[in-house]
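The record is given unchanged here:
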Amino acid sequence: MSLEAKLMTDLKEAMKAKDQAALRSIRAIKAAILLTKTDGSGTELDEAGEIKLVQKLIKQRQDSLDIYTEQKREDLASVEKEEISVLQRYLPKQLSEDELLPIIQGIITDTGAESMKDMGKVMGLATQKLAGQADGKTVSAVVKNLLMGK
């Protein structure tokens, strides 16, 4: 089932359940998809593009959440947390740091990376290989730890 079809089904269910957080989040994804389709570039949105789009929406909400938490605005922070949890349903299962370690270690071995100078090379391959399965911040932290340990 495509993301758009799943969104329509979930939107109907959220309306019936009167789930406001789900409604806001699903509508945000639908709006982002519509904007991407009508931006004039003529590019078709594939599964990888859909994942990137949802990740971007989560990152925006995470940034807002950090600001609201910093300013002690729990009312606004709770709205962002709710939306993040709904948006994460539309991403593939995220890998933990423990699951990332062997994958990234393999990439480091394959590229022959030996120091922090090689981080760009490793990050490039890791982001391609782990697209949608882990956020860049986590991947970057694991790569740094492994390269600094060498």
Q: What stands out?
A: Residues 27 and 86 are 11 Å apart (CA to CA).
